[in-house]
Amino acid sequence: MKKIRLLLIAGLFFGILFTSCEKDDDNNTVISNDEAVEIIVNSLSSSSYGFTSQVEDAAELADSIYQEGKNAAKNLKSVNADSTFTITNPPGSGITYEYTVNYSYGIQMNGIHPEFFFNFTTNGEYTAPRTTSSNQSQGEFIISNLIAGYNNYLLNGSCSRTGSQTVKVDVEREFSSTINFVMEDISIDKTSYEILGGSAEVTITGTSNSVSFDMQGSIVFNGNKSATLTINGIIYEIDLENADIL
What is the torsion angle, in degrees rounded to the nearest 10, for the CA atoms of residue 117, residue 178, residue 54 and residue 97? Predict the structure, then answer.
């Protein structure tokens, strides 16, 4: 009888221990890969006014300002501008957004070669099917290959977005996060202003329920408004236009 009681007590002890470990594991899951990808994709997508929008705007402005400056004056360094505006999603969009935006841009010389500099800030929010966010962003881009003879522009620079998100993948959770992108040799078509290639390093840091997280990944831009995101060794194909994970 004593042996049976000991076995029962031992079984109860290990059952409690196992349950406790399961709860600890659940609590330690600060942010899943899929949740991180959801936030990253919406930070990039043009449908949620992510950084793809700024890349394409920078290319279009580079084209316009360079040609205007070249035709108007020999001193291209004098061509610069600053603008602030509010932008909202087009009617009927599946993702809604509203941002106050400031663009500061112009032509500068790198030795004998003209470059287009593009600095920006945004402040606003978006609502996507699985994510809502209130955030601020900033970035600095340099576009080269302005002169004739190059089929595509080349963009380098960095950008970041800081804010709070509510994400519902499996369960609904709230995060505060900062996402940083370092973009390298982003090739942009001079006619359509679409991204053709290049890469970026991405980090996402933040907190959820007072527990911090820090994840790193990489992005390869494939053209056709698509990209490949690798985070924690897992590969995701993403749609840059519609914020979809394929």
Answer: -150
CB count within 10 Å of CB 136 equals 14
Domain boundaries, the chain: 31-245
* Listed residue (33, 34, 53) closest to 43, CA to CA: 53
Task: Report the SS3 class of residue 31.
Answer: coil
Distances (CA, A) of 205 to 92, 164, 175: 33, 12, 10
Per-residue pLDDT of the chain (246 residues; tens, 9 = 90+): 434 333 333 343 334 333 434 333 333 368 899 999 999 999 999 999 999 999 999 999 999 888 765 554 445 555 678 899 999 999 999 999 999 999 999 998 888 889 999 999 999 999 999 999 999 999 999 999 999 889 999 999 999 999 999 999 888 999 999 999 999 999 999 999 999 999 999 999 999 989 999 999 999 999 999 999 999 999 999 999 888 887
DSSP letter at 147 equals S
Residues 47, 95: contact at Cβ < 8 Å? yes
Rounded to whole angstroms, the Cα distance separating 20 from 35 reads: 25
Closest among 198, 203, 127, 129 to 161, alpha carbons compared:
203
